[in-house]
Write a structure and sequence with these properties.
42% helix, 335 residues, Rossmann fold, four-stranded parallel beta sheet, DNA-binding, six-stranded parallel beta sheet, 434 Repressor (Amino-terminal Domain), alpha/beta, 11 helices, 14 strands, homodimer
Chain lengths: 335, 335
DNA sequence: CTGAAAGCGCTTACAG
DNA sequence: CTGAAAGCGCTTACAG
């Protein structure tokens, strides 16, 4: 690949002049400028990005630490971030940790910590101005130590006690909306199939749901609250436990659990939606392909991305010490 | 951020010595090495990646031009590519063109060409050794002119007459498998709902399906072959046209069309799978959430990614002029 | 084992 | 309007 120096030689001018031509400086005669641009076309010269930023020593680049690019939530969050930064003329670079490469990653904090360390190392060496961590699912992250030279924003999860700005979803208000919807349909005997124990989402949804039902004078029977593990299979198993007890509605903590409930109902020759109201959470694409389509809560993934980017922008341009967190409400999708 | 020079000053050694310590060279005493490493920890020094590669002038980096990160096929293909290159010690950098930002992108070749030009510009300026173009859907791509300084591989699509190496799916053999499956179930009156006209997949699947049916003495009635536009809605509309004619099986060119057929059947109080055999294509996640789950063809996305990476590796390490293309068969998923 | 010096490909005052 | 020179943060022969 030809360099700026070689290009200058071919044109019989100095490197400074070529540089000025390329960067559209005004202090250059039109004729030499045209000669240089012509030569650039002929030779296919491309400026060396590394050399340039090394010299200029100022880039506007945000590093994205993606836990798992293949997670269904990642792409929309990234889209939200990129959309925002495109307007703000920041470049984004992705680092995909690919945590799914370790099937046991959820129980292996050391593994994830190592991944994060590598990611941060690489992004810092690429001189990013800030880091946004895009989580695979919401939990308390403790991977970032406090003396990093650039700000960090947590997207789709929470920081631990080391306070970091974050954007996640508002499980409480969202669950409340769902509870009120179910109550508005006149149901009195309601079940709940929760996500895994010790999970932040599950905990919040569980508490919020119980609280709202209680407030409406229809407290949840503890026997009608069981745990699954976010999957279709565990959802079906949970359904078998709880649905014999004559409930008329069941609130599932995600759409896959709800799909498992459907499986159970089909097996018993019961009709979802008619014999039992089933509601989900996430608005995963599958939720509109269940039959009948299921009422669910839409995760504001794009908005989470955009808000995360906005927080980072603010951190960089204004207050670099802000540790505010945001929870964005979900949207009830009636079907 | 502290530089190597400053670090050297603090340790009272030369920059050469620090560099040697960092890069694990053997020509350095253990004591000074320890002193330097200790100082690195204290100061949080990170080497500047740009400066390093500028000097060393050899990176092993592959640029990925992603048409749309949010496309359902993109993440698995990227995963395949990254998995391969991780072993080969190549770094990958992503450029997300985000074509969905233009709803009309499919009919706007100029728009896509501009996106590609920007992507290539940026990746070349970052000194990538090669470019893999990850398409959103299969078609003939004519975005890359022949005098690029690095090799290009097309992933999940085809090159135009300018021959480039590519990896796509084998529509012919996959469709043949599907046709034989349907025939093996004894169906004689079979319909087909194709993807959009002028689409490469649709064309191949259409021709292949007709050929196999003919070979088995059950030629497809031309009236039973209609076009949809890959979506659920157009699939349903197509079903309305073709299913009145008493067919017992319908081959849909993708799972969304099949979902549309389900919608039509439900509306008519007919049972998919019982009153009509419906088969899909793609093994999109929704295919296992339709009720009943649908028989489909699994796209070998991971394999496409891995093979693309392997082609690039080969191009770089061995024959830089190879323009071989590969088509990978899909897997029949019986449900 | 250690350091002085050159140079990777650019940009930017500055002098003319 | 143009060019000589310094320098961004590193690494690498080379001399000692």
């Amino acid at each position: 690949m030809i360099t700026l120096k070689e290009l200058a030689d071919r044109c019989g001018v100095s490197t400074a002049t070529v540089s000025n031509a390329i960067n559209g400086k005004s202090n250059i005669s039109e004729t030499t400028k045209q000669r240089i641009l012509q030569m650039i076309k002929e030779t296919g010269y491309k400026p060396n990005f590394m050399a340039r930023t090394l010299r200029v020593n100022s880039k506007r680049t945000i590093g994205l630490v993606i836990e798992e690019l293949a997670a269904f939530s990642s792409a929309p969050i990234i889209e939200g971030i990129m959309r925002y930064f495109e307007k703000q003329k920041y470049e984004t670079i992705l680092y995909n940790m690919r945590v799914y490469s370790n099937p046991n990653w959820m129980n292996d904090e050391d593994f994830v910590q190592t991944c994060v360390n590598n990611a941060v190392e690489e992004l810092l060496s690429k001189q990013v101005n800030g880091i946004i961590h895009v989580a695979e699912h919401s939990r308390k992250l403790k991977y970032y130590n406090e003396n990093l030279p650039v700000p960090v924003v947590i997207s789709y999860a929470y920081p631990d006690e080391r306070k970091l700005p974050y954007v996640s979803i508002d499980d409480n208000s969202s669950t409340a909306k769902m509870a009120e919807y179910i109550l508005s349909k006149g149901h009195k005997k309601i079940a709940m199939i929760c996500g895994s124990k010790d999970n932040l989402h599950a905990e919040k949804r569980c508490n919020s749901f119980k609280r709202v039902l209680k407030e409406h004078g229809v407290p949840l029977d503890e026997n009608l609250c069981v745990y699954a593990n976010w999957t279709r299979e565990t959802g079906k198993a949970a359904a078998a436990k709880v649905l014999k007890k004559g409930v008329s509605a069941v609130f599932c903590h995600n759409d896959f659990i709800a799909a498992g409930v459907y499986d159970y109902l089909y097996e018993k020759n019961l009709q979802p939606g008619k014999d039992l109201l089933v509601t989900g959470f996430d608005n995963h694409i599958i939720s509109s392909f269940l039959h009948p389509e299921i009422t669910t809560m839409k995760l504001p993934l794009l908005e989470i991305g955009e808000k995360s980017a906005e927080l980072m922008d603010n951190l960089l341009e204004n207050d670099s010490t802000c540790t505010e967190g945001f929870e964005i409400p979900c949207e009830l999708i009636l079907r």
